[in-house]
Amino acid sequence: MYIGKTFNFEDIPTKLKDIIKNIDKDNFKKFRWFQEKAYNILDIFLFDYAILSKKEAEIIIAAIIAFVVKAPTSKKEITLLYYVPLIITPYFRNNDLIDIIESPNLKAFIYDGIDDINYAKFLNKALSEETVIKFESGAQLIPYNLKKDDIYNSRRLSNKSSNSLTFLQKDEIIKTYRKFVKGVNPDLEMTFELKNAGFGNVQDIRGYFLYEDSSGDRYTVAIIVEHIKNMGDMWQYTQEYLSSVISTLSDYEEIEESYVEGYLSNYFEEVREIARIIADMHIKLSYIDKEDFAKRNVEISDVEEVLKSIKNNFAKLLNFIKLSTFDEQITSMIEEIVKQQEFLMSKLEEFKDTAVFGKYIRCHGDLHLEQILKTEEGYVIIDFEGEPTKPIEVRRKKISPLKDVAGMVRSFSYAAYAAYFNYLNAKGKLQDEKIEKVLSVWEEAVTETFVENYLELVTSEAPDIIPEGENFDKALAIFKLDKALFEGIYEVNNRPSWFKIPLKGILGCIEDLKLEKHGSEVNYG
């Protein structure tokens, strides 16, 4: 950015509002944490800030930046807030560059300071001494040190989420929530309450930072959690496992089902343990009697909300499909889904019965294989903030635990097809019916194993939180369908080569609703 006025480096804090307003708006779209990449950014401005450190050649700022955006298909403007720690310096660094200030007598670089060592040291000092940080508006950033340990060095962690993870010395991670929204982040309260309830498969919270404005409203800025040594997440592990199996079985001219079961049997024990852990998580959540966590009966309005989501997503998906062209196989799947639309909409009307859904409790909300870390001792579940694109009040709502179960079932389907697509790409093939069949057998078997083991523990410890018999099948099909429709909307717009995965899931759910089988007999596609 070029600023025609003459000013010195030490004047930057007084010029900060003008500087932020003049940043190239689209520069923020390159950052993973900025979620509205498809939106038009109409304006940006400094909402609030605190000067954390001011030195001769470095200024560290905790900034809350407002983005005025509009979706391409909407006329409505919305204002979103993001937390962005800034480093401004005359010197080039390896941090993520946001923009460059240029004036007649000054050149300075604006960096995202999330993994800057001096920013980390400042947070360390504030947390260890529990020093309140005053913001320009009168608001304050309040640190809560639960372990009273110092935090020192910092480096960025590989991260696939919309938040920012920074590895801190002494085996701790600071997780910064970039989207700045009012309320307690469910990641903080869920992890904290589960740990207190004796659930051992979560990270330990060491501290957190809350921003409190002049009216007393609070925003979760960051949490500090233990860094658990791990061998990667279960998605990565599953891909490596399936790749190895495919490599072996692809040499066979004919593949008997017994071969598949033999090669994949080791993975089933992993799935059994994960199912038991997730069941234990839901059981312990159902025992918490605090108002925000206590299990409750399902109201008819809850049922209507789930069914409305399905109907809306179905309509959205059909609208997006009309804008694209597909190959013969995908077209055939779409035609079958359209053919079943009348049946599906009619069938949904039969589900306006609260008994179908069991009890509502607090759940993970966005559970899939990437949210489960594999360690030497077992497994750890992470990222309890729910679906990050949804409002925080929605993410904190109670829901059927089958939403989490459905998330895992759909994740197994994605894992199977991701491995299949990787194999096709490596071999330069368009399809391989033999390998696709192998992975279809795996998906069905591993999902059945997961659901059976989940059911076994939940029905013995907290049977009231899930529906019984046929109602279990119906509810699981409903939540799988809602998830698959959401996936379909994403894939058709962002990754059409993977569109087959949710389409297969949607068709499988429709078959479930037609058959109304029980327990492990359900088609788990």
Description:
GO terms for molecular function: kinase activity. It comes from Thermoanaerobacter thermohydrosulfuricus (Clostridium thermohydrosulfuricum). Keywords: Kinase, Transferase. This protein is of the alpha+beta class. The chain has four domains: 104 residues; 109 residues; 174 residues, Aminoglycoside 3'-phosphotransferase, Chain: A, domain 2; 118 residues. The strands form four sheets. The protein has a seven-stranded antiparallel β-sheet with strand order 6-7-11-12-10-9-8. Strands 1-2-3-5-4 form a five-stranded antiparallel β-sheet. A two-stranded antiparallel ribbon has the order 13-14. A hairpin with a 5-residue loop joins strand 6 and strand 7. Helix 4 packs antiparallel against helix 5 and helix 5 runs parallel beside helix 11.
Give a topology summary.
Layout: H1 16-21, E1 40-55, E2 58-70, E3 77-89, E4 96-103, E5 106-112, H2 117-129, E6 133-134, E7 140-145, E8 154-156, E9 164-168, E10 172-176, H3 186-196, E11 205-212, E12 218-226, H4 234-249, H5 257-287, E13 296-297, H6 300-321, H7 328-339, H8 341-349, E14 359-360, E15 372-374, E16 379-381, H9 392-395, H10 402-427, H11 433-461, H12 469-494, H13 500-515
Helix pairs in contact: 4-5, 4-10, 5-11, 6-12, 7-13, 10-11, 10-12, 12-13
InterPro entries: Kinase-like_dom_sf
GO molecular function, one term: kinase activity
Keywords: Kinase, Transferase
